[in-house]
Design brief:
- It is a single chain.
- The protein folds into three domains: 2-92 and 173-229, FAD/NAD(P)-binding domain (3-Layer(bba) Sandwich), CATH 3.50.50.100; 98-160, no CATH class; 233-270, no CATH class.
- The model is unreliable at 246-270 (pLDDT under 50).
- The protein is globular, with a radius of gyration of 22 Å.
- 19% of the residues are buried.
- It is of the alpha+beta class.
- The protein has helices spanning 2-14, 44-56, 98-101, 142-160, 196-208, 213-229, 251-254; strands at residues 29-33, 59-63, 69-71, 74-77, 80-83, 108-109, 115-116, 119-123, 129-130, 132-133, 136-137, 174-180, 183-188, 193-194.
- The structure holds flavin-adenine dinucleotide.
- Flavin-adenine dinucleotide binds at residues 93, 96, 98, 126-128, 140-143, 145.
Length: 270
């Protein structure tokens, strides 16, 4: 959802004057969601507001749209085909392969103190872990990983001091998602925010949790710059080697081949 909003903004604002023969703002961005609505962890009212805000950016949201096949010509939804050269698959985040070395099928099951069963000296936290609280697995978000890290650090200190260990209990401070400039939805501590207020809350929270004043100052400056100038620092421009027909292979070729045509300084490929 966040990426769909970012694509639409890039096409409509950032890249709009940079091509001679195409109009980037004519790019169609379609967000397909197999479930009944986007952003299922949010209140349905915020899901609906997100759809409205995406619509303002020109993103078409289709819920209940299960992708059955993807190939180089596009996406299929059963009998329907959407022709496109660009497909971004964002459904599902897999746990790190290191879980397999622990004989875990997917995520690692842990004890209440986040230690591995039979190994009180070893811990697993964050996305790697399957931990149930009140009958539901805790979500794979950074709050869970950070709180798990904090508990394990305390547990190690307490174990060294021969004190009893604590139990992990996830405290959900809320969720938020940004849709683009001045657009977001947020659900902090059960409140429901959308639009500019939610977007400001998103900015404050993400700055707050950065480590160190220097990082915060740099990010504030970069965001301020991007907001007022519509310029993004990072742009990746890649072209395949002549004759390979690989012009559409993006990241793989970026490190090994320089762009064939010079780019403007402010477009420097990162
Ligand atoms: C696109 C995207 C957007 C997201 N947006 C949000 C959001 O808005 N809010 C939110 O709360 N969460 C978000 N998340 C989820 C959040 O990023 C994760 O929940 C969080 O990063 C989990 O932290 P972690 O430390 O468990 O794992 P990670 O952050 O994945 O860190 C694990 C690290 O271990 C390294 N590693 C793996 N295997 C090995 C090995 N064998 N040896 C050494 N190192 C290894 C990996 O390279 C990685 O750096 C998002 C995730 C994605 C993918």
């Amino acid at each position: 959802m966040e990426l769909a909003g970012a694509f639409a903004e890039l096409a409509r604002f950032v890249l709009r004057d940079e091509f001679r023969s195409i109009r980037p703002e004519d790019a169609r961005v379609i967000l397909l969601e197999a479930g009944p609505r986007i952003l299922p962890p949010f209140h349905p009212e915020l899901s609906a507001k997100a759809v409205t805000q995406l619509g303002e950016l020109g993103v078409a949201v289709r819920a209940g749209a299960r992708v059955t096949s993807i190939n180089e010509r596009g996406v299929e939804l059963g009998d329907e085909r959407i022709e496109t050269a660009t497909v971004v698959w964002a459904a599902g985040v897999a746990a790190s392969p290191i879980a397999r070395s622990l004989d875990a099928q997917g995520r690692v099951l842990v004890n209440e103190d986040l230690s591995l069963p039979g190994h009180p000296e070893a811990f697993a936290i964050g996305d790697l872990v399957h931990f149930e609280q009140d009958g539901k697995p805790v979500p794979g978000v950074s709050q869970v990983a950070m709180q798990g890290g904090s508990l394990v650090a305390h547990t190690i200190k307490r174990t060294l001091a021969a004190k009893p260990r604590g139990k992990f209990r996830y405290f959900d401070k809320g969720i938020m998602a940004t849709i683009g400039r001045s657009r977001a939805v947020a659900q902090p501590f059960g409140f429901r925010l959308s639009g500019f207020l939610a977007w400001e809350a998103w900015l404050v929270v993400h700055i707050w949790y950065l480590i160190g004043f220097r990082n915060r100052a740099i990010v504030i400056f970069e965001w301020f710059w991007a907001y007022w100038t519509y310029k993004r620092g990072a742009r990746l421009i890649t072209l395949g080697a002549p004759g390979t027909g690989a012009s559409a292979s993006p990241v793989r070729s970026a490190a090994s081949r320089p762009p064939r045509e010079p780019v403007k300084d402010d477009q420097a490929a990162e």
